[in-house]
Design a protein that fits this description.
The complex is a heterodimer.
Chain A lengths: L1 H30 L1 H6 L7 E2 L4 E2 L8 H9 L2 H14 L10 E7 L1 H7 L4 E11 L4 E14 L7 E17 L8 E25 L4 E28 L2 E15 L9 E2 L3 E2 L4 E12 L14 H4 L6
Antiparallel strand pairs in A: 1-2, 3-4, 3-12, 4-5, 5-6, 6-7, 7-8, 8-9, 9-12, 10-11
Helix pairs in contact in A: 3-4
Chain B lengths: L1 H17 L14 E6 L2 E2 L2 E8 L7 E8 L1 E3 L8 E9 L5 E18 L3 E13 L4 E6 L3 E2 L5 E7 L1
Parallel strand pairs in B: 1-11
Antiparallel strand pairs in B: 1-2, 1-5, 3-4, 3-6, 6-7, 7-8, 8-10, 9-11
The chains are: A alpha+beta, B mainly beta.
């Protein structure tokens, strides 16, 4: 009898709060029945028999998981769908492609009458369709006899080199279309001379003809580059670049600093332009797509665990 | 889109900043600039005339002007040039000194805008001492830049 009484008391102690809670809940449901019918139900998936809360499938964003665990599964599903759409773009391999280009801007301008010209071949390695190390190697020359000047400036054909990198802002798109910002470090060893100097001093009324023989110049400069590249036909593309540049260092020449530096241009102004024609060799057959799977009911469905 | 707009704006600013011009803001010739001093302070002298010895028609470079500085152009065809600095002491009386520059010349390319000219490396400056106390060589190399080359200290 004692055991029966003890069991009854334990059962009462366990069930009383549940009974009391159920009574309160039934009252509130009864009073707010109109409101509750309009709200959607929060469903927390549980394993039958054990009442254990089931976790969602793997690869679900932790933020989505948080929402999921609140019990609002519809909201979690919607959020997962949005998340998968925003992350869905092509990921390119480390070695996406290799491009050889020819900067022909000065060639065109030289035909149009410009007194100096720099032309370079550039090599670009496209990494992940984002980062692009660039090497540019070229030659430059100048010959200028200003109409109101008293000299002829001759910049002998001399080499130059630039090294740097671009960052492609259109990395989510095909490598056929690039918009990039970049930086370059350029250098040149060059020779120049000033011919046919006709010096006149008005007060002494004397005119002397002379020349400055070959001078050796060295220059190091920086460039900030903004540019675009667009595919025209198969591996061929065209692009332009606008460059803001400045001299970092140059050697001092006692008979005057050079007017033209191969690869840099003239000393006047700090802006330069480049127009390129490119040939691209892709390193991948088809773009390796690692797209995030769009969220579906299937991949948010909880996986039962034993 | 916001980023592209910012980049476009930056490019425009670069364009605006990058425009150079083709004017020569220095001298078209290499001219030594002499400034006048007394007791270490800059002074302005009145009724000053400067004249290069051997100049065509013995013409004056500056005639009867109030000056605190003057250019004294050197001859590129010789290795020395003499200048007379003359000053009216009274209405009828003038006093003068002769400055002699010894130098070497070197062809010099100033810039595309200012052109080519002769630069001078001044070795020595001599003077008589009627009005002038001493001459101080501030900068040996004379180019077309507008900088003080010599200080003339007056008594």
């Amino acid at each position: 009898m004692k055991h029966v009484m003890r069991l009854f008391l334990i059962a009462f102690a366990l069930l009383a709060p549940i009974w009391a809670h159920a009574a309160v809940a039934s009252d509130s449901v009864a009073s707010d029945s109109a409101a509750t019918t309009r709200q959607h139900r929060f469903i927390t998936p549980v394993k039958t028999k054990t009442n254990k809360v089931l976790p969602p499938s793997k690869d679900v964003d932790p933020k989505v998981l948080e929402v999921f665990l609140t019990g609002d599964t519809l909201k979690a599903l919607e959020q997962a769908r949005k998340d998968s759409i925003s992350r869905s773009y092509t990921r390119y391999p480390l070695l996406t492609d290799f491009t050889v280009g020819l900067n022909f801007a000065d060639m065109v301008l030289a035909i149009a009458g410009q007194d100096y010209m720099s032309a370079d071949v550039n090599f670009t390695l496209n990494m992940w369709n984002r980062l692009q190390p660039v090497l540019e190697v070229g030659l430059g020359r100048a010959k200028n006899t200003p109409e109101d000047g008293n000299y002829t400036y001759v910049g002998k054909l001399s080499p130059y080199m630039r090294i740097g990198a671009n960052y492609n802002f259109l990395f989510k798109h095909k490598p056929d279309y690039l918009f990039f910002l970049g930086a370059r470090l350029g250098g040149s060893l060059f020779k120049y001379q000033i011919q046919d100097i006709n010096h006149h001093n008005g007060y002494w009324d004397e005119t002397i003809k002379t020349e400055i023989t070959t001078q050796n110049g060295r220059a190091l400069w920086y460039e900030a580059v903004a540019g675009m590249r667009v595919k025209i036909w198969k591996p061929i593309s065209l692009g332009w670049q606008i460059k803001f540049h400045g001299l970092i260092k140059e050697n001092t020449v006692s008979q005057g600093q050079p007017w033209f530096i191969p690869g840099y241009g003239t000393r006047r102004g700090s802006l330069a332009f480049a127009f390129n024609i490119y040939y691209t060799i892709p390193f991948y057959k088809t773009a390796s797509t690692q797209e995030t799977k769009p969220a579906t009911d299937a991949n948010l469905t909880p996986t039962p665990q034993n | 889109m916001k980023h592209l707009l910012s980049i476009a704006l930056a490019l425009l600013l670069m364009l605006a900043a990058a425009c150079g011009d083709s004017s020569c803001y220095d001298n078209g010739n290499a001219l030594p600039l002499a400034r006048f001093y007394r007791d270490g302070k800059k002074i302005t002298l009145s009724n000053v005339t400067t004249r290069g010895i051997g100049a065509p028609n013995d013409s004056a470079y500056v005639k009867g002007k109030s000056l605190s500085e003057t250019y004294l152009p050197l001859r590129a065809s010789t290795t020395s040039t003499q200048w007379i600095i003359e000053m009216a002491v009274t209405n009828d009386d003038t006093m003068s000194d002769t400055l002699t520059f010894h130098y070497t010349t070197v062809p010099y390319f100033a810039s595309a805008e200012c052109g080519a000219m002769f630069a001078f490396n001044i070795d020595k400056v001599e003077t008589t001492r009627n009005l002038i106390d001493s001459v101080e060589l501030v900068q040996r190399k004379v180019t077309n830049l507008i900088t003080e080359s010599i200080k003339i200290h007056f008594q």
